[in-house]
Amino acid sequence: MKKLHLFILKSYLGPLAMTFFISLFILVMQFLWRYVDDLVGKGLDFVTLAELLFYASVQVIPMALPLAILLASLMTFGSLGENYELTAIKASGVSLLRTMKSLIYVTIVISVLAFGFSNNVLPWANLKLYTLLWSVKQKKPELEIKEQVFYDGIEDFRIKISGKDPETGLMRDVMIYDHRDSRNPNSNVTLADSGKLQISEDNGFMKLTLIDGIRFEENVQGQKKRLDDREKQRFRQDRFKKQIALFEMEGHNLERSDEKLFSGNDRMKNLAQLKNGIDTLNVQKGTLIEEVNTQTAGFLFQQRSYYQRRNKNMPKQAIDSIPPLNYDSLLQSLNAHQQLIAIERAKNQAQDNIRQLDGKLTRYRNYQTKVTRHYMEVHRKFTLSFACFIFFFIGAPLGAIIRKGGLGMPVVISILFFIFYYIIDTLGVKFANEGAWHVYQGMWLSSAILFPLGVFLTYKSATDSTLLNADAYRIFFQKLFKREKFDLKNRLDREKENETSPKT
Fold first, then answer.
1. Is residue 146 part of a domain?
2. 3-state DSSP call for residue 451?
3. 209 has which bridge partners?
4. Of 167, 195, 297, 353, which has the highest C-beta tally within 10 A?
5. Considering its fold, how many domains does the chain have in total?
6. How far apart are CA 390 and CA 450, in angstroms?
7. 9 and 93 share a domain?
8. How far apart are the first and last CA of the chain?
9. What secondary structure does DSSP assign to 7-76, as a single string?
10. Long-range contacts made by residues 461-467, C-beta under 8 angstroms, separation at least 24?
11. Is 183 found in the same domain as 80?
12. Residues 297 and 238 in one domain
């Protein structure tokens, strides 16, 4: 038995490692495709890109691991069935479950490690990834002046060139608009025959050297907001052989954001931190509810509040025993002007109370949303481990049933199952996030659907079912059609006999 288990392990671990890295690569490419607009043109160095890809790889492991287990188990048992090795094992008296015994232990170990990964490593990777992504998004695009296009990457300046030497970097026919004068943004123009850009080593400044140019400046005094026709004729013209301009490159360097800005998010917490966060949010919700109760009680019992303010020494029992006023008779006792004033004050106070309650209701909904997301993250740390376990019990028996190894049929079936799982899981998360379902119902929906499927496939495989055998279905339909054809022939023969028989 030990040799059999070692043989099964060797047949399984190789495809598992291969499929895991393939799945990881595909999911990382999906991540890059999603954030390509935020990364292109930022001039990121290799170290930053490698760091970003590393954190992205760690983040997509919860999706890559179940897919790899499903595909590897399908390939392993499909190959064993295709080469009749699984048939030989069963013929020797070893059941399918005993054959899977060593891999079941491996899957349990992987599930436990996956839980530890989700609880400890994944929050750290999410914090690092989203902090770095935010820093990259805040970085200005890399300085790259294209031909025949106005470049606006430098604040208050617009630069256009007609051509550029790719070897020397020398630019031809340089045109620069200076928009620092907000009153007359197009009153300062510089034209040069050629020019060259040089960036300082720390990317703090840009040095622009212009050769053989002329500078036009209108309305030198700048005394008026707008220029009339006469003042437009007043301009200054300067010719130069060489001119050097320095521009500050603020925002073009990658500045790392503080990780504390994102540490409060639910995706960046482990179980202990999530529990503390839920307790804190519940306390804040309770405090807000008490404030609303106190405020609404004041709305309903303004008379008691009035007596408490006017008679501070009056006992509370005496105040509570005061009969309620008849507001209609009180309003009728006032003259018309006083009634209008009283109604206007009541209306303003009611509107003010509604605004206050709306603001507190919005705060309450925000607290409730954060609590829901914290609970979702708690369940998510367990659903990953359970998904690994379920996908093994789907892939292994399914591979034994279809008896096809390699990367053909197993890949197709794995992708279909994973898409089905992803759609169901997305729907469950959406319903839980919106409050339509309880959190545990939405987060465990996919597991609740796939677990019975895994049990069913394991039972069918253990009983040598022909569930996905195309030959069995072909033989069944052939027998069915043959039987229908035979019944039709018998029926026609009987009808013919009835027609030819003499009538009595």
1. no
2. helix
3. 196, 244
4. 195
5. 2
6. 7
7. yes
8. 79
9. HHHHHHHHHHHHHHHHHHHHHHHHHHHHSHHHHTTS---HHHHHHHHHHHHHHTHHHHHHHHHHHHHHHH
10. 461/96, 461/396, 461/397, 461/398, 461/400, 461/401, 462/95, 462/96, 462/97, 462/397, 464/90, 465/401, 466/401, 467/401
11. no
12. no
User: Are residues 312 and 415 located together in one domain of the fold?
Assistant: yes
Tokens describing residue 279: 């307790």
Contact 234, 219 (CB under 8 A): yes
**471 or 194, which is more confident:** 194
Is a pLDDT exceeding 70 seen at residue 286? yes
Q: What DSSP string describes 120-158?
A: IIHHHHHHHHHHHHHHHHHSPPP--PPBTS-B--STTEE
- Return the bridge partners of 160, or none: 175
Stronger pLDDT, 274 or 167, i.e. the higher one:
274
d(CA 205, CA 240): 23
Same domain, 332 and 442: yes
- State the Cα–Cα distance between residues 304 and 43, nearest whole angstrom: 68
Give the chain's length: 504
Same domain, 269 and 240: no
pLDDT digits (tens, 9 = 90+) for 45-101: 788 888 888 999 998 998 899 989 988 888 888 888 888 888 788 888 888 888 888
Of 272 and 41, the one with more pLDDT: 272
> Could you give the dihedral angle defined by the CA atoms of residues 147, 152, 155 and 156, in that order, rounded to the nearest 10 degrees?
90
Number of other CB atoms surrounding residue 498 within 10 Å: 8
Provide the domain limits for residue 398: 1-139+254-462
Q: Which residues contact 266 (CB under 8 A, 6 or more apart)?
A: 274, 277, 370, 373, 374, 376, 377
Please indicate, yes or no, whether residues 182 and 264 belong to a single structural domain of this protein: no
- Mean of per-residue pLDDT scores for the chain: 78
Q: CA-based angle 32:38:39, to the nearest 5?
A: 65
Amino acid at 86: L
Question: What value does the mean pLDDT take over residues 139-164?
Answer: 74
Q: List CB contacts of 42: < 8 A, sequence separation 6 or more.
A: 136, 139, 140, 141, 142, 254
Say how far apart CA 285 and CA 289 lie, in whole Å. 6
Q: CA-CA distance, 72 to 69, in Å (whole number)?
A: 5
pLDDT of residue 504: 44
In whole angstroms, what separates CA 477 from the centre of its chain?
47
Q: What is the C-alpha separation between 441 and 215, in angstroms, rounded?
A: 71
Q: Which two tokens stand for residue 306?
A: 């009035």
User: What backbone phi and psi angles, to 5 degrees, belong to 144?
Assistant: -150, 105
Structure tokens at 258: 């503080």
Identify whether residues 301 and 375 lie together within a single domain: yes
* Contacting residues for 260 by C-beta, under 8 A, at least 6 apart: none
- What's the pLDDT score for residue 113? 92
